[in-house]
Amino acid sequence: MGVGGLVYLLGEFKLFSASRDFIFKIGDMGRSVLRLNDSTALNVGSLTKFSLPAASPAYLGVGYIIGVRLGSLNFAGGLLAWGLLVPLLMYFLGPELAKTMPANAGHAEWDPVITKLVWYKIVRPIAVGGMLVGASYTMFRMRKSLAAGIGRAVADLKKASGQSEAADRTQKDLSIKTVAFGIAVTFAAMVVLYNFFSGSWFAAAMAATVMLVLGFFFAAVSGNLVGIIGSSNNPISGLTLSTLIVAALLMVAVGVKGMTGVAAVLGVAAVVCVSSAVAGEMLQDLKVGHILGGTPKLMQIGDFIGVFFCSLVLYFPLWMLHQGNIKEGGIGFGDPKLSAPQAGLMAMLSQGIVGGDMAWPLVIVGVCMGIALILVQVKSPMLFSVGMYLPLETTFAIFTGGVIRWLMDQVRDKQGFNDAQKARVENAAVLIASGLIAGEALMGLVKAGFNIADKPLTDILEVFKEPPLAAGLIVLALLALILVRWPLTKAGDPNEPAPPAAIM
């Protein structure tokens, strides 16, 4: 964590350049000369951008954890966006786009603006269509598990309604009356909230009903899948997307449109998303408690206390990140520095269905692309589409992290370690990468706090006006060295048994 936070701060103090963008003209074919006035003419060609991988501890750590195969898939989406779609669109649209630029604009001024605009306004909606298919495909592949989770939820509900107090301490849960009271309070609170958004008590009651029914079933599905398979298999995106579409169609059916309807839809989707995520984590907690002989009732009370205080606290870091980015000249969440691709997918769909503001032709193109990815057996169309949606320096850094992990694995395998040593190296590798992510995330909050206070970190210390790129490459190499060498030092004695986490 210390290393991750320190590297991030040094980048903010402009000791090194975390990444650098380069604008390229791909070939001369199709170039045309557009005369803007009597004295100015611009050569318009096929433009695109190439970015070096960001020297970011967080992005490298993410790629290091997911591995080179998934990192490659994510980076492939970025290459498709910037290596095919952007230059192809610029080849055909460049002359028309140049007409919108000032007459005295030169290439150095308008090239980055136009390429970014094409990516943001055309390529990203295509990526949204791909993410939509990816989420749906994930749900389809897990259809048997989803059906089993829903069936178990119904069975458990029937069992709970007719169950008396268990005599064994390890079998005691919160009473159904307590749970029902909590559900009723939540339902009433959501009706008031959704009425604030929609301005209609009837629409608010309908939205709260959708939230209650889908939240119940999807929480059961999420908990069942996480408890059996693991947290990485929790289909949060697909569950939230399904909720959002149902709620959006319902808002349109009852006549609630515009931004009020969009806010109500996102309110429903947010509650179901959080409930599904929390259910998965609670089931993991309860599973461990069951193995260790804990009392379910007391653990459930503890979980609710944790959720309550987290809900009071977590608003503030989100607000800080959003406002800090705005103070920096961004747009908050959705800005390239705060991309939030899946949240962007939800926002765009709700605005398209309820607000009537959707580039449907581009989304349909993305849907067709997602179907094609499924037909050619791409492992994760969702991850590929997210790669198109994210900035190239981000996907490149994630891919670089995956390559570093592959290198560490190669070195580890040549050391002749036994299974126990390999397990310790694996555990250390994941912990070190997680620390890098957490360290940068915490310093990101510190930076946001200084931005909100109108005291940016560069006011405190600014080493270079134009940070050197070579220093950024050196930082990237040092982070790679840490991620390769440090886990290997944790292999331990070959006669020492494997850690319990590896055995489980």
If you had to describe this structure to a student in words, what would you say it looks like?
By secondary structure, this protein is mainly alpha-helical. It has a domain at 2-139 and 325-329 and 338-503. Helices cover 72% and strands 4% of the residues. It has 18 helices and four strands. The strands form two sheets. The protein has a two-stranded antiparallel sheet. Strands 2-3 form a two-stranded antiparallel ribbon. Strand 2 and strand 3 form a beta hairpin. The protein is globular. Mean pLDDT is 82; it is low at 28-36.
E-strand count: 4
Largest sheet: 2 strands, antiparallel
What would you call the structural class?
mainly alpha
Binned, the helix content reads: over 70%
Compute the separation of the termini in Å: 26 Å
List the helices and strands in order: HEEEEHHHHHHHHHHHHHHHHH
Question: Could you name the ranges where pLDDT drops below 50 across 5 or more consecutive residues?
Answer: 28-36
| Mean pLDDT figure | 82
Shape: globular
Q: Can you list the strand order of the major beta sheet?
A: 1-4
Proportion of strand residues: under 5%
Number of helical stretches of at least 4 residues: 18
Q: Radius of gyration, rounded? A: 26 Å
